[in-house]
């Protein structure tokens, strides 16, 4: 359904794909299957992020070995590494191949600040950034020529047309891929955006839905 509606890329085993619940063998298997089945039709991005640098390196190497086009990398979570540590971690995987940095501090509890991104942007293997902090941060990067996808569906229309994002790495696209593609590539359209917003908001609320019908807590 995604490919039939003209999406440019498929992200395998990301947050929505529950890669965090898979073994590395399972993730690499899914990446390989996606490449083998659809790699001639769409770009394949594999989630290879880890809070352990050596694990991130291994996963990245394995993903490229099975043919993915780029690797998505979250920043090391839980340990709250230093800014120098963030740069060192990302440089380790950037030495392997094309990388998309994923900044979502609501999940990692650590923001990747602009100073780190601007440092890493000098590396030709940095494809771009998936940014979930907000549209003002996106504008800060796009003004400098850094490629950014928003990771927030509900503000993706404005991110694309008012703040310079090249697109969205979308949850809602799993439900309404054609509509999301139209929002990203057919020009600014407030009326169409209003139709997509309920889906985007519903996807954003999915984490609030838990254990319905399992009795009292």
Automatic annotation (TrEMBL):
Single GO term (MF): lyase activity
Coiled coil stretches, renumbered: none
Keyword Lyase: yes
InterPro entries associated with the record: Aldolase_TIM, DapA-like, Schiff_base-form_aldolases_AS, Schiff_base-form_aldolases_CS
Pfam families hit by this protein: DHDPS
Record lineage: Eukaryota, Viridiplantae, Streptophyta, Embryophyta, Tracheophyta
This protein's UniProt keywords: Lyase, Schiff base
Annotated Gene3D superfamilies: Aldolase class I
Similarity annotation: Belongs to the DapA family.
Protein name (database record): 4-hydroxy-tetrahydrodipicolinate synthase
Naturally occurring in which organism (per UniProt): Glycine max (Soybean)
Domain of life: Eukaryota
């Amino acid at each position: 359904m995604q490919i039939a509606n003209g999406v440019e890329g498929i992200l395998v085993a990301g947050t929505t794909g529950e890669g965090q619940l898979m073994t590395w063998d399972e993730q690499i298997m899914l990446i390989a299957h996606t490449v083998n089945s659809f790699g001639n039709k769409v770009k394949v991005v594999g989630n290879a992020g880890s809070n352990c640098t050596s694990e991130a390196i291994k996963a990245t190497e394995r993903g490229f070995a099975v043919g993915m086009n780029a690797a998505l990398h979250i920043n090391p979570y839980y340990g709250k590494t230093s800014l120098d540590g963030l740069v060192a971690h990302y440089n380790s995987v950037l030495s392997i191949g094309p990388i998309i940095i994923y900044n979502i501090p609501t999940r990692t509890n650590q923001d990747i600040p602009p100073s780190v991104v601007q440092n890493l942007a000098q590396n030709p293997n940095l494809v771009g950034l998936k940014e979930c902090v907000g549209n003002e941060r996106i504008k800060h990067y796009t003004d400098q020529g850094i490629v950014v996808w928003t990771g927030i569906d509900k503000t993706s229309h404005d991110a694309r047309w008012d703040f310079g994002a090249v697109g969205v790495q979308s949850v809602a696209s799993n439900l309404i891929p054609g509509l999301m593609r139209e929002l990203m590539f057919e020009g600014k359209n407030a009326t169409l955006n209003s139709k997509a917003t309920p889906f985007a908001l519903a996807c954003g609320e999915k984490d609030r839905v838990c254990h319905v019908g399992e009795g009292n807590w």
